[in-house]
Amino acid sequence: MHIDLHTHSTASDGTDTPAELMRNAAAAGLDVVALTDHDSVRGHAEAIASLPEGLTLVTGAELSCRMDGVGLHMLAYLFDPDEPELARERELVRDDRVPRAQTMVRKLQALGVPVEWEQVARIAGDGSVGRPHIATALVELGVVETVSDAFTPEWLANGGRAYAEKHELDPFEAIRLVKAAGGVTVFAHPLAVKRGEVVPEASIARFAAAGLDGIEVDHMDHDESTRARLRGLAKELGLLATGSSDYHGSRKTVRLGEYTTDPEIYGEITRRATGAFPVPGAGGPRPA
To answer: Measured between alpha carbons, how far is 16 from 233 in angstroms, rounded to an integer?
Structure first.
């Protein structure tokens, strides 16, 4: 089985619609794909309606968190999307995305970058506006060559010159809320230092004690030594070790299924979840 547990659609900051993402996942040879848009479940219905036969969808979201001034992301899988407490927190985060993005645009303008809010809004479309949309604007303007190049201290990385904070969950509260909604939590790209400051490993141990289920080990922003370090940490703390592409369509160079999760780990995630269940596709044949 080929299992990719971290992807994004146009419901947040990916470039594939949820339907396109499902077709592309099947074409890439995936058996299981998770749709984990930022703080949003808006793409789930379209993804489910367009699932090709032979592809299973894991519903989820990537929750924005902050602890001690450090931003981090918590992947939440197979939770009840209608659980009111978690739904309210997701809405608070989404509502703060536009003013936060507008603040970053103003900071970029003060740095001499001729970016306009209208440009960023056009790029975001109906998605939840975020830093990748602003990074895409910087690529269009020729300020940086790639979206990844914008996520540096010079520009949009955590604490960077044009960075602005938004409403974010306390990670311990995120773990509690997801568990209360019957879901499973995995700390996304925990040591992706190229994105900015990361939390210390001691914090990961505290998350594990609070009920964290796993950590994302195999990820494009982790080099081989970091993956080995995280794999050892997962074993030490009794955490599940996942692998995922963090696919954003054409916004990043990573391919669907470039990093995957072991089927036994996937099976354990589904066994722990009680809020929702994986959805098997029956909408038509897989692409040739």
So the answer is: 34
User: pTM here?
Assistant: 0.88
Q: Which of 282, 283, 268, 280 is nearest to 77 (CA)?
A: 268
Rounded-to-integer distance, Cα 198 and Cα 42, Å:
29
> Which helix or strand (DSSP H or E) is residue 76 part of?
strand 70-77
Write out the two tokens for 255: 């391919």
Q: Give yes or no for a contact between 247 and 221, defined as CB atoms under 8 angstroms apart.
A: no
Torsion sign (Cα): 101, 89, 212, 60: negative
Are 15 and 250 spatial neighbours (Cβ–Cβ below 8 Å)?
yes
Beta bridge partners of 60: 77
Per-residue pLDDT tens digits for 224-252: 999 999 999 999 999 999 999 999 999 88
In angstroms, the CA 236 to CA 231 distance is 9
Distance of alpha carbon 187 from alpha carbon 217, whole angstroms? 9
Dump strand ranges (E) for the chain: 3-7, 32-35, 56-67, 70-77, 184-187, 214-218, 240-243, 279-280
How far is residue 18's CA from residue 9's CA, in Å, rounded to a whole number? Answer: 5
- Going from the C-alpha of 78 to that of each of 13, 43, 236, the distances in angstroms are 21, 14, 25
Which tokens in the block code for residue 20? 């396109």
Backbone angles phi, psi at 73, to 5 degrees: -120, 135
pLDDT in tens, 83-140: 999 999 999 988 898 999 999 999 999 999 999 999 999 999 888 899 999 999 999 9
For the stretch 46-68, pLDDT in tens is: 999 999 999 999 999 999 999 99
Helix or strand (DSSP H, E) at 118: helix 117-124
| CA atoms of 180 and 172, how far apart (whole Å) | 12
